[in-house]
């Protein structure tokens, strides 16, 4: 079968499972924070592939790592270990609290490993009744059945039959709700140190401190889901490093591979011992290609200049968004940290985040939403300052087209 295939948006509806509703244009090429579609139209990328393309598109260091490794060795399975995986794991332990690393291929799988480890640890150390997982409303942890059930939006987990059990959802930033609910039956608390999909919501200092204290008091493990906040996104390598507390287990993915699929679960030696050979695993997890690319990403992101640059860029975004808001009065607040930015729409603009996203696309700007009422931006951490200005100018035009 070598018939010519007409690749256009309509083909999506013909051959793809309709669980997405992609934009009309089809990007074919990217360089830094610019992308071009099939017609040669140019876009500035404030979406960053949903907090993934942290070094932009086709960064030379990533291309080099990918092509060098691609000419050497792609895959082994975990029947053998490999050099890139060992180097990457070593670097991740040097950068963080962690002493041990488990590699997966996505954020959901990193969380799946984290939750299974917490359950196994509690069962081994305290007995089978210590199984409750506490998580938070509007939280997002992935789409496997366990992680989507731990996530705080029933709409995503309903309708698939019996759910994994003993999961409780509390209100984010509600200290009293957590204090009155948590008990010695609690196995783990899973939390995003800044809710991403749920609308870019930061924890209050009091709340996040209390989460740690109450976990300690009840021998519950604290799992930080840093799939979106990790790898420099907030201006720290991991967001926990800016919050003054340390989790017991941390999951990450998205920016870790800069666009190449990889996830990781990080933990201590003491906890890791509860996963023995055969307890958990992955065919692809930690494969040489993914790890070689991620190592190149980590080498750049972990540099103090890169992290400082994130905060400089955040300031430019905030100043630009304020200017736009002074003109059109559509945001009630600009939330988030570093380059995980959410502009919340005010009363008058409720439900119009997708309209803005589509209008931005027409002006040559790629942005995201986080729910129907928040315009989200998660660009490359090294986006050029002129690109930020040009992108914001296009956002201004997009909004002008809607008023
Ligand atoms: C994106 C995301 C996930 C899921 O990651 P996948 O790679 O899509 O499985 C999990 N948790 C958080 C906080 C995320 O933002």
UniProtKB/TrEMBL annotation:
Keyword ATP-binding carried by entry: no
Annotated localization: Cytoplasm
Cofactor: pyridoxal 5'-phosphate
Keyword DNA damage in record: no
Gene Ontology BP annotations: L-arginine biosynthetic process
Coiled-coil segments on the chain, per record: none
Annotated family: Belongs to the class-III pyridoxal-phosphate-dependent aminotransferase family. ArgD subfamily.
Quaternary data: Homodimer.
Keyword set, alphabetical order: Amino-acid biosynthesis, Aminotransferase, Arginine biosynthesis, Cytoplasm, Pyridoxal phosphate, Transferase
Designated name of the protein: Acetylornithine aminotransferase
Positions of N(2)-acetyl-L-ornithine binding: 143, 282
UniProt EC number: 2.6.1.11
Pathway recorded for this protein: Amino-acid biosynthesis; L-arginine biosynthesis; N(2)-acetyl-L-ornithine from L-glutamate: step 4/4
Further facts: May also have succinyldiaminopimelate aminotransferase activity, thus carrying out the corresponding step in lysine biosynthesis.
Pfam families from the UniProt entry: Aminotran_3
Cofactor note (record): Binds 1 pyridoxal phosphate per subunit.
List of residues that carry N6-(pyridoxal phosphate)lysine: 254
CDD domains: OAT_like
